[in-house]
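Subject: design request, 256 residues
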């Protein structure tokens, strides 16, 4: 059986007496866009931060392409491009300087800064004209696209992204959706948390719905709608599943 690109086993995060994530187990194969949906407070961002190595789980295991994140953090983190919901950037650098810095962190310099790859990404995300401007002059949407450039710079096989469409205008949102699809078609696994059910229905190959720290349903958008008895409408499916105790019974989902 093919090793899943992402494997979460009994993942749990507890804050005092509150379980933000409660025994979550999940496998995600390579080469898909995987949507991670849930209401506010369901545990989406906590799960994503644990997957990115920003938070330490209280219990459980995270494997990225077979590497245990706790046992082999350096190897596991090299496989990931992380795009948080709020971009944190060194605003006194230019866009190109920031990408050179990120390239250095991943050991891409090799005597020369990774300008060629950085330039290609800046052009792809329509930031070429701003590459030599200070980041402090960028709009929120431009900063978000620059973070995406930095996440893709070292060509990771896994992209973990939290609310990618926040602050993007319709043109930029369309661009980002197309890029995520292209990445998946090239074999990259894109694990995406989003509140935009329209984006999930349009872009994601598979979807998991999380509520109260645990997964209550998983499948394609069509499969989830059919099992919930709400045909073709992911919004209605989502609302029905998240207000029904226990969600729906999840059928086994093979790992490609």
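Subject: RE: design request

Done. Sequence follows.
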């Amino acid at each position: 059986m093919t090793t899943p690109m992402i494997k979460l086993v009994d993942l749990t995060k507890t804050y005092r007496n509150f379980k933000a994530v409660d025994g979550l187990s999940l496998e995600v194969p390579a080469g898909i866009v995987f949507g991670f949906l849930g209401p506010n407070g369901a545990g989406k961002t906590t799960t994503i931060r644990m997957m990115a190595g920003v938070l330490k789980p209280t219990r459980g295991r995270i494997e990225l392409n077979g590497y245990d994140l706790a046992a082999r953090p350096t190897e596991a983190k090299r496989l990931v491009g992380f795009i948080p919901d709020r971009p944190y950037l060194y605003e006194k650098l230019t866009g190109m300087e920031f990408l050179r810095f990120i390239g250095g962190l991943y050991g891409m310099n090799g005597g020369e800064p990774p300008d060629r790859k950085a330039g290609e990404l800046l052009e792809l995300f329509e930031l070429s004209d701003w590459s030599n401007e200070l980041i402090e002059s960028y709009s929120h949407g431009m900063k978000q696209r620059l973070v995406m450039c930095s996440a893709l710079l070292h060509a990771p096989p896994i992209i973990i992204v939290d609310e990618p469409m926040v602050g993007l205008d319709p043109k930029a949102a369309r661009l980002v959706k197309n890029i995520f699809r292209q990445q998946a078609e090239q074999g990259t696994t894109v694990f995406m948390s989003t509140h935009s059910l329209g984006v999930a229905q349009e872009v994601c190959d598979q979807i998991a719905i999380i509520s109260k720290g645990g997964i209550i349903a998983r499948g394609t958008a069509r499969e989830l709608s059919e099992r919930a008895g709400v045909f073709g409408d992911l919004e209605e499916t989502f609302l029905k599943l998240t207000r029904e105790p226990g969600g729906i019974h999840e059928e086994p989902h093979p790992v490609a």
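The CA atoms of residues 31 and 187 lie 4 Å apart.
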